[in-house]
Amino acid sequence: MIKKSAWILFFVVAGCDGGFGADEVQYVNPFIGTAVGSGNTYPGPQVPFGMISWSPQSADFGWSPGGYNYNNNKIDGFGLIHLSGAGCSVTCELPFIPCTGDLNISPAAHRHAYASAFSHTNETAVPGYYSVNLSTWNIQFENTVTERAGIAHIDFPKTAKANVVLDPNADGVGLKDGSIFIDPTNHMISGWAKSGSFCGIQGSEYVVYFAAQFDRPFTAFGTWKNDQKNDSSTSVSGPRLASYVTFDCTDHQRAAMKVGISFVSIANAKLNLQTEIPTWNFSAVKKNARRGWNQCLDRIQISGGNREDTAIFYSALYHSLMLPSIFEDVNGQYIGMDNEIHTVAPGHHFFATFSGWDTYRTQAQLWGLIYPDAASDFCSSFLAMARQTQHEGGGGFPLWSLYNDETLVMAGYPADPYVANAYAFGATNFDLAAVKKVMVDSGKNQRWCGRNLNVTWDHLPEYEKYGYYPADITDYSCSKNVEFSVADFSIAQICKQTGDEENYHYFLNRSQNVFNLLNSKEGYLQRRNKDGQWVTPFDRFSGDGFMEGNSVQYTWTIPHSLNKLIARLGGREKAEAELDELTSHLATGYDYQSKYYDAGNEPCFGVMPVYNWLQKPWKAEDKTRFIMLNCFKDQPQGIPGDDDSGAMSAWYIFNALGLYPEIPGVGGLAVLSPLFPRAVIDLPDGHKIVIRAQNASRENKYIQSMEINGKANSKLWLSVDELKRGVKLKYVMESTPNKNWGVSPADAPPSFEPDPVTTQ
Fold this sequence. Notes:
Elements: H1 6-13, E1 55-58, E2 74-79, E3 96-100, E4 116-117, E5 123-126, E6 129-134, E7 139-145, E8 149-155, E9 162-166, E10 177-183, E11 188-195, E12 206-214, E13 220-225, E14 228-231, E15 235-237, E16 241-247, E17 254-262, H2 266-276, H3 282-297, E18 300-303, H4 307-319, E19 325-326, E20 333-335, E21 341-343, E22 351-352, E23 354-355, H5 356-359, H6 363-370, H7 372-387, E24 400-402, E25 405-406, H8 415-424, H9 432-444, E26 448-449, E27 454-455, H10 460-466, H11 477-497, H12 501-510, E28 518-519, E29 524-525, H13 551-554, H14 562-568, H15 572-582, E30 586-587, E31 597-598, H16 610-613, H17 617-631, H18 647-657, E32 659-660, E33 668-671, E34 678-682, E35 688-694, E36 702-708, E37 711-712, E38 717-719, H19 720-724, E39 727-734
Parallel strand pairs: 30-31, 35-39
Antiparallel strand pairs: 1-2, 2-4, 3-9, 5-6, 6-7, 7-8, 8-17, 9-16, 10-11, 10-15, 11-12, 12-17, 13-14, 13-16, 18-34, 19-22, 20-21, 23-24, 24-25, 26-27, 28-29, 32-33, 33-38, 34-35, 36-37, 36-39
Helix pairs in contact: 4-18, 6-7, 6-8, 7-8, 8-11, 9-11, 11-12
């Protein structure tokens, strides 16, 4: 039986049932990150974790995988699904474009045939709502959405030839196959589109189904196949297809359109539409979308900052809630990794699309802390994906899953730290024992995930044999060693939580393998062959052996054993000098072989907090604030690199609060500099984390003193357990550093090694 109001129920299930006293939506700018080279976000409407993202698509994406290029002045259509912040083009399926006049050009053969010019002065985007004037056709378009469906108003000029064209070919990477069906009796268009090949990798295909209904009869309709137009045709199939419907708007200019999507079937797309938007009440859907966003954004209330910083903060929180997205239909059905139909447990969601290498570092902890129900369901989704891949002994978790398949993108095994991070920060409503079993099994045996059958732990036998990834066996050997050591440590933490001491020690010890690639003579991670010899000549700025980075950046990405890293680099003084050099300048965007800190990419996410382990917290406070003020803006060019499914945005959220989740699988946060004078984090159980930062401002970035529940504190690490009991953090901030705060041995944050390490 379908619940009466699935949309409203969703926010309760996902843990977004916050208060309604504030309207944080007013601060969100969906255009942040929509310029080329910044964020790869999109401005169209979506609800938190929503399946549908019905957003405008530029006539020329350029390097804009979100489908929208702020610098382009033409709109090619309004697609139904998008990936927020991804680094490669894909999705953007099923774009509809309204237009007027004769339809003499086939969009199936001539992309952009009915694109329209527009101006940003006639464009509006707020969470859950979008509108624009399509000036070429003199059409006003607005739309809003629920989880799986949307509704649009299309205001045509007076004309007998008001058209809505569907051009499935104008997607992100090219339509592989599809079908369109026109039902003039019920004023409906339905069909499906098949696409995939994320980042140019073959496979990782998906099919999205749709059903669109209009509030008035068609005066004409038809299809295109390649360059051939077939008036009055009710169906067309193949990779080069399009369709149109026409209305007479001479007397009544507004046409309304509703559309539902599904990844299971056309029937389910219709069911989603009928269930979530049963009437033509546009304003009610728009109001509910805004309400839903306010429920989620209201989990964190900030005050006292300037308008720009407030806009950046809530826009970042908004972008952190786009992906992963719910994947099941209103009847609970979803398509699994085995391409079979499954049903999610009642009261839960199945989440899809996991940008693992990116989101395990920040988003997992954010969701675990303030949206634990959603994070728990995502961990359960991992378990389901593993069970749906039964190949050569069993399945494992995905690396970078796109809908219901694996893409083979990036290095390491990020699902392990994602699960461990989510659990450590509060997402505990999933089968921990079963998840741990998969983590341990895939950490010791070669397992697979998805129809693409991606190996979950690349070159595992060699990793265990040599104690590192030899450069003459695999590409990205240094990056893989870093990432798999993080995965090892994460498995160890889950084993510890379940009382599995044997595997805890096994994986904790194996998490130290990364140090086998740390050349103490050079002071950096370096490639090594299977005969044990270092690969020479060595260039610390080269990307050889590294995934989107180099040795000067990756050497600092051993977050679980930072004391050991500092000692192996020659002690605190030498390590500090090296870190000072790396952070003396900033790179942004996609400068992977930069000599300096790359603010636009994940390997540098946790670099600045390392100063806390050196017990020079004022340097972390200073340099982190510099990044926030110079790399994040309330403008389209406002994100320093790909937002990567909200990973970059979650980084900003934590740093603006003055807390950072440095160590994977450990419930704790490095103490940094709060940006806002006041922040309140509402936890789902009713407890609050209250942060008061006296004198805090952009300039007053240095901590002078700190209190926890009225007691003086100088420790540079806070446990999540302490925070979750409800806590009041009080800071005094000034524009000059207090170099006597946080410097005693007792103030140092934790480091995890099998044997104690001194860093003096």
